[in-house]
Amino acid sequence: MNNYQVESLAQQVAQVLCDATMQVMYPRYKDKLLEAFPGYRMEVAVGRGRATNHKLRKDNRLQKITYGRDMVLSKFSSRQRHAWTTSKEIRRRGYFRGEVSFMTLMVAVVLHEFAHAVQHAEGGRQRGSVHNAHFYRILDAMHRSDLPEQVRTYLAERIPMDRVAIAEQADIETMVASKQQSRDRAASRRLPAGTPLDGLHAGSKIMVKGRPDMGYYRVTRINKQTVSADSLEGRRGVRIPWDLVEMCGEDEGPATPPEQSDRLSVGDLFTIHGRPELGEYRVVRINRQSVRGESLNGGRDCRASHSMVVKSQSQQAA
Ligand SMILES: [Zn+2]
């Protein structure tokens, strides 16, 4: 099986997850959801990256669940699959009697994302508190019902498990690493010589023109017409047009915190600088001065300043 075939299998599986959501999960909760959000509709989609999530539009008229193709891809790998939240849930909460396999992970992710839809309908989601007690009450109840079996049957009839078995032998680590490399290459694209910002690259230190009060930033990505940058002083990151970029010398401004060039978002995994023994955390909230993380190895949750957070190279959790 070549890389292309493995990817298209992942795409195919992600589409089956979408179908299971609409065919098995949605009819079960339709009335409850409509009661909470009259006139709303539910949408499902396959995403190109890893991101797998549930979103409720601000006007409460649309809920959308996205299954990332690369989420499926990384779950072909018996090593990578353990980094995901669903994998942790199966082990910690005893879903499927603790059996982590490709199939149980696929069932688990369908239930997990749908539990977010129900959580919203019940008003159990507050900002910064997503995987809370309310969420797990819903998810636990789902796992005690016949839904896992129903979803599993649905998936088993539509996912070619013989091909999955072959994909599980593929070198997913190398595939994922080379995808990450090409993303990094895109991020470090330099502006063409002769432009006003000649020499600007990912990692350059900059300020926002005319706004010295905003302090110093480090470029994380150069986009077609804008530049994305992380604050070096614990503020929010910015995305500004090229003509607002003020290039700075490396020795200006505050010292560079470790590994600060990687932009962090909710769901990313990280470790705390200088404290490898604490293991990995998952970002649950990003504040102005700090990041709140949930321990992935059963430890206490943490709040760490931006400068102490080191983003992991493994995938986002979902
Ligand atoms: Zn979740």
What does the model show?
The protein is of the alpha+beta class and 318 residues long. It has three domains: 3-175; 188-247, SH3 type barrels (Roll); 269-311, SH3 type barrels. It contains eight helices and 13 strands. The strands form three sheets. The protein has a five-stranded antiparallel β-sheet with strand order 7-6-5-4-8, with no helix packed on it. The protein has a five-stranded antiparallel β-sheet with strand order 12-11-10-9-13, with no helix packed on it. The two termini are 26 Å apart. Mean pLDDT is 85; it is low at 256-261. The site of zinc ion has 4 residues, from helix 4.
Compose a concise summary of this entry.
This protein has 318 residues and is of the alpha+beta class. The protein contains 8 helices and 13 strands. Helix 1 runs parallel beside helix 4 (102-121) and helix 1 packs antiparallel against helix 6 (147-158).
Layout of helices and strands:
Elements: H1 3-36, E1 41-47, E2 53-56, E3 62-68, H2 69-76, H3 85-93, H4 102-121, H5 133-144, H6 147-158, H7 161-167, H8 172-187, E4 205-208, E5 216-222, E6 226-231, E7 238-241, E8 245-247, E9 269-272, E10 281-286, E11 290-295, E12 302-305, E13 309-311
Parallel strand pairs: 1-3
Antiparallel strand pairs: 2-3, 4-5, 4-8, 5-6, 6-7, 9-10, 9-13, 10-11, 11-12
The structure holds zinc ion.
Zinc ion (ZN) is lined by residues 112, 116, 130-131.
